[in-house]
Amino acid sequence: MECDILVVGSGVLGLSSAYHLKLRNPDSRVVVIDRSSGPGQGNSAKSEGGLRNVFTSEANYLLTDSTIDWFSHLEKDLGYDVKLHYIGYLWLYSERQYNGLKSTLEAIQKWGAELRTYEKEGLKRMVPHLVTDLEGDEEAELLDIESIHKGVLGVKCGCIDTDALVRSYEAEFLKLGGELMYSTDAKKLILRPEEELGIPGEPFVWQESRISGAETSRGEIRADTTVLATGVWSETLLDPLGIDALMRAKKRQIFVFKDSRLGGLLEVEGFNKYSVMPLTILPKAGILFRPEVTEGSIWLACADELGRGYGLEEDPQPEANYYTDEIYHVLVKYFPCFRDIRPANMWAGQYAVNGYDGMPVITPVPGMIYTGAASGSGIMKCDALGRIVASLYAGEEKAELYGGQSFNVSSLGVEDRNVEREKFII
Amino acid sequence: MECDILVVGSGVLGLSSAYHLKLRNPDSRVVVIDRSSGPGQGNSAKSEGGLRNVFTSEANYLLTDSTIDWFSHLEKDLGYDVKLHYIGYLWLYSERQYNGLKSTLEAIQKWGAELRTYEKEGLKRMVPHLVTDLEGDEEAELLDIESIHKGVLGVKCGCIDTDALVRSYEAEFLKLGGELMYSTDAKKLILRPEEELGIPGEPFVWQESRISGAETSRGEIRADTTVLATGVWSETLLDPLGIDALMRAKKRQIFVFKDSRLGGLLEVEGFNKYSVMPLTILPKAGILFRPEVTEGSIWLACADELGRGYGLEEDPQPEANYYTDEIYHVLVKYFPCFRDIRPANMWAGQYAVNGYDGMPVITPVPGMIYTGAASGSGIMKCDALGRIVASLYAGEEKAELYGGQSFNVSSLGVEDRNVEREKFII
Question: How many angstroms separate the CA of residue A372 from the nearest CA in chain B?
Answer without folding.
Answer: 14
